[in-house]
């Protein structure tokens, strides 16, 4: 939870609410049973990891033969608290003969409350550390995970979330990097994910999302799903991979109310899953929801030249560092005629590490040829950015040292998609007019300079760059 620099002068509450539940609660006066399992609730309700309680008041809303709905309510007393105001009613529903439970929340602002921003709103389940060690996010991303103790004994890398496992309890994991952003997914892909226990029989604990309508950012919005803890999340509102543009911002006195969810927490078990945990994963992903895969225009896909065996595909930590390895002195130069974008275009225009934790701005060149130039006509450079983080991108045409750029984005972006191993964040599109008298017949060069270089994570990701001739 932080106040962004440009809001320092305002008296603004910045709210990051994590509604946390444990795998098992021990509670008085309520012991619902649905034919599969029991839930025992704590009479104070779930606790958050961020120094506040969200369940001071407890009540059973519905209790009949088919359904039990339990509500934990928290009402803020603005006159007696300096904390950001938000009323939260978190509800749990158990249906008879259903192997799991539903949960949703009703969040509300009352008229007259002060200015505040919601940067993060999510529900989190903290599972038992001693039994849950296997994670499954997708068909490709499944693995035995390290423990929190392994992280504590490891080496913190470029940021606190990334830890090199130097002495893990499982020796097979030594030398790996653990980073919670490895397990982020687009909303459209995060329909089911969870953890599997090492008990006999094994127990699967799954988060299943029926839709993304209650989440901010749309289907291509990325966010966290699971990570060490073992932790299982459902993120409703977040500034991850987007920055402050996706924070919910309220003016003084503004009222607001929203239902977020429901989501289904599904539990399954199978004795055979002890040797093959994917059995529980395959069962969980069949719970009546659609899943998608990308194909070619004919509906086909193929992975070539794979040696026989069983593989897991994971994201690689620290790819931004490779720019300084590939371009230690001179920046990227892309020739439209001779270069291959698969090989010659780096995934992000980042800063260059010149040693001693010092970073340098970078200028990329795009070289292209024009057979003819109409000096009096207008050309257009279409510049689309898949992500930007604390960056300024300047464009110059045929004069890389010109004091004044032809175009600048100004200071943009807070998605942090580069550090979070994302392939996109908040989208930016610029249509840049270029008069013909800036161009020449023959070879031309467009200079792209990312000017801000304080950290290794500042930069932009390009979606596409297109140069258009005069419109007839």
Automatic annotation (TrEMBL):
Residues 1-30 form the signal peptide. It comes from the Eukaryota. CDD domains: RGL4_N. Keywords: Signal. Pfam families: CBM-like, fn3_3, Rhamnogal_lyase. Residues 277-314, 317-467 form the Rhamnogalacturonan lyase domain. InterPro entries: Gal_mutarotase_sf_dom, Galactose-bd-like_sf, GH-type_carb-bd, Polysacch_Lyase_4, RG-lyase_II, RG-lyase_III, Rhamnogal_lyase. Gene3D superfamilies: 2.70.98.10, Galactose-binding domain-like (2.60.120.260). This is Rhamnogalacturonan endolyase. It comes from Datura stramonium (Jimsonweed).
């Amino acid at each position: 939870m932080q106040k962004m620099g440009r809001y320092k002068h305002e008296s603004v509450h910045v709210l990051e609410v994590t509604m946390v539940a444990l795998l098992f609660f021990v509670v008085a006066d309520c012991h619902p049973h649905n034919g599969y399992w029991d839930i025992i609730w704590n009479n104070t309700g779930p606790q958050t990891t961020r120094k506040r309680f969200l369940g001071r008041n407890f009540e059973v809303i519905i209790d009949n033969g088919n359904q039990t709905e339990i509500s934990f309510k928290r009402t803020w007393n603005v006159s007696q608290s300096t904390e950001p105001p938000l009323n939260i009613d978190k509800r749990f529903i158990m249906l008879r003969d259903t192997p799991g439970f539903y949960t949703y929340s009703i969040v509300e602002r009352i008229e007259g409350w002060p200015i505040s921003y919601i940067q993060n709103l999510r529900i989190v389940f903290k599972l038992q550390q001693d039994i849950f060690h296997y994670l499954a996010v997708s068909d490709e991303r499944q693995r035995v995970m390290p423990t929190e103790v392994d992280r504590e004994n490891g080496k913190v890398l470029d940021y606190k979330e990334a830890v090199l496992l130097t002495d893990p309890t499982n020796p097979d994991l030594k030398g790996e990097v653990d980073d919670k952003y490895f397990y982020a997914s687009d909303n459209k892909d995060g329909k089911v994910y969870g953890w599997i226990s090492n008990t006999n029989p094994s127990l699967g604990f799954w988060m299943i999302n029926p839709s993304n309508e209650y989440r901010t950012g749309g289907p291509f919005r990325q966010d966290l799903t699971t990570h060490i803890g073992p932790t299982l999340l459902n993120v409703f509102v977040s500034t991850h991979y987007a920055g402050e543009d996706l924070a919910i911002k309220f003016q003084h006195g503004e009222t607001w109310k929203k239902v977020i969810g429901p989501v289904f927490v599904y539990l399954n078990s199978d004795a055979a899953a002890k040797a093959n945990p994917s059995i529980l994963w395959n069962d969980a992903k069949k719970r009546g929801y659609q899943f998608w895969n990308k194909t070619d225009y004919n509906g086909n896909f193929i992975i070539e030249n794979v040696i026989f065996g069983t593989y897991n595909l994971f994201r690689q930590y620290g790819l931004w560092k490779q720019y300084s390895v590939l371009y230690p002195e001179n920046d990227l130069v892309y020739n439209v005629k001779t270069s291959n974008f698969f090989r010659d275009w780096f995934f992000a225009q980042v800063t260059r590490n010149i040693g001693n934790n010092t970073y340098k701005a970078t200028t990329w060149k795009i070289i292209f040829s024009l057979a003819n130039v109409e000096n009096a006509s207008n050309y257009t450079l279409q510049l689309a950015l898949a992500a930007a983080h604390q960056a300024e991108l300047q464009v110059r045409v045929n004069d890389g040292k010109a004091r004044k750029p032809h175009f600048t984005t100004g200071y943009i972006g807070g998605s942090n998609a580069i550090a979070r191993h994302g392939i996109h964040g908040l989208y930016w599109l610029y249509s840049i007019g270029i008069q013909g008298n800036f161009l020449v017949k023959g070879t031309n060069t467009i200079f792209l300079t990312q000017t801000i270089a304080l950290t290794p994570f500042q930069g932009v990701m390009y979606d596409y760059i297109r140069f258009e001739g005069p419109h007839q």
